[in-house]
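User: Assemble these into one structure.

Assistant: Restating your components, then the assembled model:
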Amino acid sequence: MSASWKGRGMPEKDKIGLQNFSSFYGDVLALKEINLQIRSRQIFALLGPARSGKTTLLKSINRLTDLIFGARHTGQIFLDEQDVFGPEVALPELRRRVGMVFDLPTPLPLSIFDNVAYGPRLKGISQRSRLEEIVAKALKSAVLWDEVKERLSSSALRLSGGQQQRLCIARVLALEPEIIMLDEPCSGLDPISTASIEESLTLLKKEYTILLVPHNIQQASRVADRVGFFLNGELIEQGAAEQIFTRPKDKRTEDYISGKFG
Amino acid sequence: MAISRFKTQSIFHGVIWICAFSTLAVMVLILWQILREGVPLLTPHFFLESPRQMGRTGGIFSIIIGTLLITAVAVVIATPLGVGTAVFLREYTRDSKISRIIRFGTDCLAGVPSIIFGLFGFVFFVIFLRMGWSILSGGLTLATMVLPTIICTAEEAIKAIPYSYREVSFALGGTRWQTVKKVILPNALPGIFTGILLGVGRSVGETAAIILTSGSSFLMPTSLFSPIRTMSIHFFILAREGISMEMAYATGAALILLILLINTFANWMLHRYVRKLEGKGHA
């Protein structure tokens, strides 16, 4: 059903939906009764100070929270109307659909090629020519191809921080995901690397749904279509980026955006 | 009387220097003593002939072969078991009752004197399982001895792998086994190797446990069920029973060279592997 809507400029269904979703680490509440709809082919920015639950929200969608001892949840998260916590969900498949880029560049200690080919290989693709195709395409989309095409077999650890982070984006793109989640992908990067990552994001949103935890408010205002403001595990306010940044409804949102705390 | 800060500094500097120097001196003394007596006797014949007249003349070829075989059996059995246990403890279970029992067990095993392992091997492998005095009995006994070392070093190596590697592998759609196979084991390999080398060292140097389980025959082994004599035992018998001090020293020197050779080769292999894994020009 949703597939037939794609690419025709028609209104699309919600890609991700959270219903009364709460998350806990042991007895500590990380997210409190979140209700949120995220549409496809948009950049949704999760804004808020540290420890407000943004990362937990991302990691709940692809269920990386499963790896954390003592993590539990109530409520539901839907991906194309399918409950991601449902019994029939296969985790590798879910994580291929929902790619994630972490706050620090995390290249595996492998060559550039092997890093990008890691996901496709796990999926069972082993034909060299097919892998080369996927790797080249992913690196091009992440705006890294021109810098590394001559040295795909050299160690990914030798790339600069900005290049490593774009490599991580390419690695996620190689999965051919539907959603890309980026958790402060530009923290620790210089302004030029940041600009090139933001550039690739605006290109990518034509094909993907993007969830971004921006590393500052300026970044959110530059790239986001919609924004949700989180504070202490609660979703305080959400709306179009322009509205949030110019006419926030909640006092706390306004204080945060104007820099009174953060 | 107050000692100036400068004086304390130089006293400690001296003490630490003496510690380091003493360690080096002990090592050099041992090596020098053995090699000085032994190396002049190391001829091609010594390496390529089997012992004659209880080892008074001839060489140590059959003994080298026996040593290598028993060590290989021990390592081939203990490595998969040990690494598997370490992976289980680190990747497949959290701090649970089972993991605590296993850790307690390996810690105990590590502290047991080798003669006790020998006694166990004699009763269990040699007699109960009817393997007799053989390479297999000795190798299995050595395997139980080096198992704690291999588990412990492999666990440390796995523990040292950044959590982010696992997270990334899972986030890219990896199953637990794929993550272990593609990320955990390759990156833990250098540490695992260290454990294996320690195990090899312990196997090559062991005497008590092997006399009880592999006998002390210096004949050329024909199968895994043949009894053998290792180089350490040969050395022990030659020196202890006054057969030939010269041959004992020569065997000792050969043993030291063998261990050096194994370590150098293993390091070279490891280095090559790490470079291949991480791609060209590893940082």
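Chain B touches chain A at residues 94, 164-175, 178, 182-183, 187, 277-283 (CB under 8 Å).
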